[in-house]
Amino acid sequence: MASSATSNKNNMDDRVYDLVVVGATGYTGTLTAEHIAQFLPTNTKWAIAGRSTGKLDELAVKLKKLSPDRVQPVAETFDLSDERALAQLVGKAKVCISVVSYWQVGEEVVRACVASGTDYVDANGGIYGLKGWIDKYHEQAVARRVTLIHACAVYAAPHDLLTLLLIRELRSRASVQTRKVVVAVVGTPMGISGGTADSIMHDATSSPPDAAAKLQNPWILSPVPGITGGSDDRTDVFGMYSENGLGLLSDTSYSAAQDRHIVHRTWGLLSGSDNGYGSHFQYREYSRAESKISGILKFLTALLTSCVLRFALLRAFAKRFVFPAPGEGPDVKQSRLDRFTIEAVAVGEPEGAQGKAAPRAYGRFTFHGGAGYLCTAACLAQGAATLLSGSRDDVTSGHQGGMITPAFLGAGLMERLCKAGGEVEVRML
Ligand SMILES: NC(=O)c1ccc[n+]([C@@H]2O[C@H](COP(=O)([O-])OP(=O)(O)OC[C@H]3O[C@@H](n4cnc5c(N)ncnc54)[C@H](OP(=O)(O)O)[C@@H]3O)[C@@H](O)[C@H]2O)c1
After folding, report:
1. Helix (H, G, I), strand (E, B) or coil at 74
2. Of 182, 283, 336, 401, whose CB has the highest number of CB atoms within 10 Å?
């Protein structure tokens, strides 16, 4: 990287923008820009960046109409093949939100942020791709004190934050470490965007042959290995089981694997610190089954989806006739009427005498501001605002940079989400 594009974190006051949204013209990027226009302080200096001047101009008009009395974003065009120019562009901002198609061009933005000392937030939950980024850039980011928060989206920010809050509740109320957190995703699955469908298809077809086997290891993103097995949540033949406090659950949550990898990375990054979760900790995620019948239907739907992803002909059919094209996604008006809700139970290490019940805490997070991608837009924009405010959570003590997780924005991010349509409840059972 040319030295003129390289700067460090001491020159933050010289930066032209507080925020830049790279990939602002995509489906998620547009919703994120709209969230910034509606919820972030009106004097925020920001830019929307993309490869198409026409699309950026259209978006700028839309944003002005949405919120005319605020500082309007500057439109910045970039060409990702020009590495130096990209580093100069993101280096104009204190924080970069990346909402590009990650498997195609995400790494270029990460590299530019590390080089220019620009803090960064993304919605990337593609575990195999993230593993590659972490292996390449985590140490560089630590050395440069650049913070990169990944998966700060509907998958996996609420799960990672609620886990953190429940573990704190158990620690402060019952003075115990946590053995497991079980999350139940409530409600029906939301629609997906073209960009997400594209990522899923890419992961299904282009990952190396041993990728699936490697991803079976739930600690692949954690810097230290955790325990495997020993879990007491055994499912039946239809993937169902009951958890005290959560009811009947179905092992069909679409985001279970990716959320588990992210929460386990948080666990690994915190292990050995005063904020550690406990050496026997494991995260599990299910979807809520309203009844045995609905659980069986969920199971069959998940089976069908995995068949579609396994066979090339079915994948091609789904891409052509079922999934939206890149740039498109679920109807936003309808999404605003829907809600995203997760419930969770944290189970402590058994206290004192054998046979004594382990303490349990219950948590619930609802995003009333809309389902799926609207929640992602809020997580990205409010995550960036938390980074900008400099008010990191105390879990970040000892973490001055690196490729970390939404939990590191902690209670500060949860508070901001709650002011933008979220609601959280945490209590002992
Ligand atoms: N973890 C989660 O919960 C979560 C939630 C939402 C989204 N996501 C992820 O977010 C990503 C974006 O999703 P999306 O639905 O918003 O996708 P999208 O609508 O297709 O948008 C992709 C963006 O990337 C830009 N882009 C693609 N190739 C480019 C290139 N060669 N040069 C410059 N820009 C390029 C596009 O620019 P143009 O507009 O010019 O085409 C667009 O701005 C996906 O990877 C998706 O999986 C994750």
Report:
1. strand
2. 283
Any atom of ligand 1 within 6 Å of the Cβ of 129: no
Summarize pLDDT for 52-63 with one digit per residue, the tens. Answer: 999 999 999 999
Instruction: Give the chain's end-to-end CA distance (angstroms, integer).
Output: 53
Share in percent of the chain as helix, strand, coil (round to 5): 45, 20, 35
Beta 282-288 vs 340-348: how paired, if at all? unpaired
Contact 184, 288 (CB under 8 A): yes
Please determine, for residue 229, whether its predicted confidence score (pLDDT) is greater than 90.
no
> Left, alpha or beta for 116 (phi > 0: left; psi -120 to 50: alpha)?
alpha
Which pLDDT score, from 0 to 100, does residue 1 have? 38
| pLDDT, tens only, 257-286 | 999 999 999 999 999 888 899 999 999 999
Tokens (6 digits) for 192: 């997906």
Ligand 1 neighbourhood includes 158 CB (under 6 angstroms): no
Look at the chain and count its residues: 429
Q: In 3-state terms, what secondary structure has residue 329?
A: coil
Rounded mean pLDDT, 23-46: 98
CA distance 252 to 289: 10
- Measured in angstroms, how far is the CA atom of residue 194 from the centroid of ligand 1? 8
Residue 13 DSSP one-character state: G
Q: How far is the CA of 105 from the centre of ligand 1 (A)?
A: 9
Q: Ligand 1 centroid to 100 CA: how many Å?
A: 4
Going by alpha carbons, the residue nearest to atom 27 of ligand 1 is: 101
38 CA to centre of ligand 1 in angstroms: 21
Closest CA to 28 of 375, 405, 365: 375
Cα distance between residue 324 and residue 209, in whole Å: 27
Cα–Cα distance for residue pair 396/308, rounded to 1 Å: 41
Of 96, 196, 198, best ligand 1 pocket probe by most atoms within 8 Å of the beta carbon: 196
8 Å CB contact between 423 and 165? no
Neighbours of 357 (CB within 10 A): 10
